[in-house]
Amino acid sequence: QMQLVESGGGSVQAGGSLKLSCVMTGATDSKYCMGWFRQFPGKNREVVAAIYTSGGVTYGATYYAESVKGRFTISRDNVQNTLYLQMDPVEPEDTGMYYCAADPCLSTITAQTRPQEYVGSNYWGQGTQVIVSS
Predict the structure, then answer these.
(1) Block means of pLDDT (10 residues each) for the chain, length 134 residues?
(2) Do residues 113 and 72 lie in contact, with contact meaning Cβ atoms separated by under 8 Å?
(3) What confidence score (pLDDT) does residue 5 get?
(4) Contacts of 111 (CB under 8 A, 6+ apart)
(5) Closest C-alpha to 12, from 112, 134, 106
(6) What is the structure's pLDDT at 83?
(7) Of 116, 104, 131, nearest to 31 (Cα)?
(8) Residues 107-128 as b or e (16 or more Cβ within 10 Å = b)
(9) CA nearest 105: which of 64, 51, 38, 46?
(10) Given CB 3.0 to 4.6 Å as the disulfide criterion, which of 6, 12, 31, 132 pairs with 125?
């Protein structure tokens, strides 16, 4: 069982930066596909970044949605058991609620190369709001 708690959201001007954090507690040494999602009002959640980790180490490919490529960076600090999303620069279109998520993942080539297909079914944080003004 894993618990996730996000923080770091807030209001920022376009062109600025934010770093979201997701503290993980529970079975953090197991194999997980992990990621960040965002949700716009009236829309479904969409995955913006995802990774595969085993024993706290990231393997395989990192996924980014086209809309955030080159601007967002997902990373995991194994010592702090924290998943991060660095957002730089931000755009008004990035305004929304951001969630971190984790799902147990088998050690398969597909999970390591396409983690975005395996994340979003099991463990979720409570969300953190991001507001970007123009």
Answers:
(1) 94 98 86 95 95 86 96 92 96 97 89 91 96 96
(2) no
(3) 96
(4) 31, 33, 52, 60, 105, 118
(5) 134
(6) 95
(7) 104
(8) eeeebbebbbebbbeebbbebb
(9) 51
(10) 6
Question: Can you tell me the distance from the alpha carbon of 33 to that of 120, in angstroms, rounded to the nearest whole number?
Answer: 9
- The residue type of 55 is G
Cα 33 to the chain's mean position, in Å? 10
Residue 54 confidence (pLDDT)? 86
In sign, the C-alpha dihedral spanning 12, 13, 15, 16 is negative
Two tokens at 36? 């960040």
- Concatenate the DSSP letters of all residues of the chain into one string: -EEEEEE--EEEETT--EEEEEEEEESTTSEEEEEEEEE-TTS--EEEEEEEEETTEEEEEEEE-TTTTTTEEEEEETTTTEEEEEE-S--GGG-EEEEEEEEE--S-HHHHH-GGGT-SSSEE---EEEEEE-
* Calpha distance 10→130 (Å, rounded): 5
Measure the CA–CA gap between 95 and 14, rounded to whole angstroms: 10
Residues composing the chain: 134
Query: What pLDDT, on a 0 to 100 scale, did the predictor assign at position 80?
Result: 87
